[in-house]
Write a structure and sequence with these properties.
There is one protein chain. With 226 residues, the chain is of the alpha/beta class. Helix 2 runs parallel beside helix 3 and helix 6 crosses helix 8. The chain is built from 8 helices and 12 strands. 27% of the residues are buried. It folds into 2 domains: 121 residues, Response regulator (Rossmann fold, 3-Layer(aba) Sandwich), CATH 3.40.50; 94 residues, Winged helix-like DNA-binding domain superfamily/Winged helix DNA-binding domain (Arc Repressor Mutant, subunit A, Orthogonal Bundle).
Length: 226
């Protein structure tokens, strides 16, 4: 497993990290909430060990922002010295998946992380991503730079084909077959839908992602046109 440990107590972080690494896991560290949130958002971890009391931003706020702003569902095991029911309920309400009170056994931490990681992989949403463009295949939501885009069903089919193939070029005939099947439309239909897709995906933003290969087809990529 790749695990992020967000803990400001160096002894606890070192003991936990050493044990997990000896067991074959990869461990990254953060000693404050702001750094921990940044690492959790920009990287893909199997699980996160998150202390409740952290400098800069406490564990509850880190977990809330991870879920709401970072839109990350990485499993979180929250560690704390607080053993009251209210503290535990606050942790779960912020988006934590499990809760462990200090002092704890290292073996139990690993066992709980393993369960959370398996559960997290089973619940992993199917998301296509190119640059800052994301398409959640389960919810059919498309976002660019965090902004929700409104696309019709035909545009969604075209976008999925382009994103799945990215950065390769998708031939025009392949796109038409994917969208309309054997009953292909007139020659202008795909061009019209591509125009509409560009208006939603590219026009409001600084950089265009949808590119045309004249006489061949289309692609979506973060790199310059080839």
């Amino acid at each position: 497993m790749r695990i992020l440990v967000v803990e400001d107590n160096r002894d606890i972080a070192a003991n936990l990290g050493d044990y997990l690494e000896e067991r074959g896991h990869t461990v990254d560290y953060a000693a404050d909430g702001i750094t921990g949130l940044h690492l959790a958002v920009v990287n893909n971890f199997d699980a996160i060990v998150l202390d409740l009391n952290l400098p800069g931003m406490d564990g509850l706020e880190v977990c809330r922002k991870l879920r709401s702003e970072g839109r990350k569902q990485t499993p979180v095991l929250m560690l704390t010295a607080r053993d009251s029911l209210d503290s535990k309920l606050s942790g779960f309400d912020s988006g934590a998946d499990d809760y462990l009170v200090k002092p704890f056994a290292l073996q139990e931490v690993e066992a709980r992380l393993a369960v959370l990681a398996r559960r997290g992989k089973a619940a992993q949403p199917r998301v296509l991503q190119v640059a800052d463009l994301e398409y959640n295949l389960d919810t059919l939501e498309v976002r660019r730079a965090g902004k929700l885009l409104q696309l019709n069903p035909t545009a969604l089919k075209i976008l999925q084909s382009l994103m799945e193939a990215s950065p390769a070029v998708v031939p025009r005939i392949d796109l038409e077959t994917r969208v309309w099947g054997e009953e292909l439309p007139d020659s202008d239909s795909l061009r019209v839908h591509i125009h509409g897709l560009r208006a939603a995906v590219d026009k409001p933003f600084d950089k265009a992602l949808i590119q045309t290969r004249h006489g061949i087809g289309y692609r979506i990529a973060d790199s310059e046109p080839v």
